[in-house]
Amino acid sequence: MNQFNLLATPLPDSAADSVFNHGIEMAALESHLQVLTEHLNEIQRTGGSDNRLADLRLQVARTLVNLDRGEEAWPLARAAFDHFIDWDLYELAADACDVLFQADQTGSIAALGQGIWLAVTCPIDPELTIELLNHVIEDTPDDSDGAAVAATTALFLADVRAHGRHREDLMFFATQLLGAVARRHGDVETPEQLDQWMDRLELKEPEKFLVRLRNVVDVLVQDDWWFDREALQERLPFG
C-alpha cells in the first residue's frame, strides 16, 4: 500500500485522542522531571536539609517510574528509603517501597513486602496501606489465599484507622476489593456465600488473618530485609 494512502487514513477518534493524551502526559512528566532534577542537583551541590534531599530523590524516582525508567529510579528511591528508616519516617519509607515495587527491578518484590510490613505495623495513612496491599491482590493468581488475606486486611485497617468521610471512601473501596477477590477466588455471588467463604478461610478474626499476612510478607521478602524489625518496633511510641 502506498505510504500516502496510509497517512491519509485517520486513526479512530478514540485512538487518536489516546495517543495525543499520552504524548501530552509524557511531555509533562519529562518537564516535571527536569525541574525536580535541577532542584536535586542544586541541593547536592550547595548542601541542604537531608530530609529535603531524600524527599526530592523520592519525587524524582516516582517520576522516572511513571516514565518507565525503573532502573534509573531504583537507586534514588532506595537511598530515600534508607534515610526515612534512619529518621523513623515510616510513612515516607513505605511510600518509597511503593515506588521501588513499581520500578520493577530485581528487589521490587522484597520492597513490596517491607512496605506492607511497615504499613501494617506503623500507624500510617491507611490509603497508602491499601495501595500496597492492592499490589498483592493484583499480582497473585486467582486461587491465591494471599489475595484474600490482603483484601481482608485492607478492609480491617480502613475500618480501624481511617476517619470521617475518608473512612467511608476507603471502606467502600476496600469492600469492593474484597468482593472482587471473593468472586475470583471462590465464585462468591451472594452475601451468604461471602460469609461462608470468609469462615472457610478464617478471615473474620484479625488475630488469624494478620498472622497469615505475616506469612505472605515473609514469602515476598525472603531473607532480604533492609532494616532490623525488632529494633524498629522498640522505637515506636506504642512499642
What does this structure look like?
By secondary structure, the chain is an all-alpha fold. The protein has 2 domains: 14-105; 106-239, no CATH class. 32% of the residues are buried. It has 12 helices and no strands. The N and C termini lie far apart (71 Å). It is globular. The chain has helices spanning 3-8, 13-46, 50-66, 70-86, 90-102, 108-121, 126-139, 145-161, 164-186, 191-200, 206-221, 229-235.
Chart the SSEs and their pairings:
Blueprint: H1 3-8, H2 13-46, H3 50-66, H4 70-86, H5 90-102, H6 108-121, H7 126-139, H8 145-161, H9 164-186, H10 191-200, H11 206-221, H12 229-235
Helix pairs in contact: 2-3, 3-4, 3-5, 4-5, 5-6, 5-7, 6-7, 6-11, 7-8, 7-9, 8-9, 8-11
Distance between the termini: 71 Å
The residue fraction in helices comes out at: over 70%
Unreliable residue stretches:
1-9
- Contiguous helical run count: 12
Query: Helices and strands, in N-to-C order?
Result: HHHHHHHHHHHH
- Mean pLDDT, nearest integer? 90
Radius of gyration: 21 Å
**Strand segment tally:** 0
- Biggest pleated sheet: none
Work out the strand percent. Answer: under 5%
Total domain units: 2
Q: What structural class do you assign from the helix and strand content?
A: mainly alpha
Q: What form results from the Cα inertia axes?
A: globular
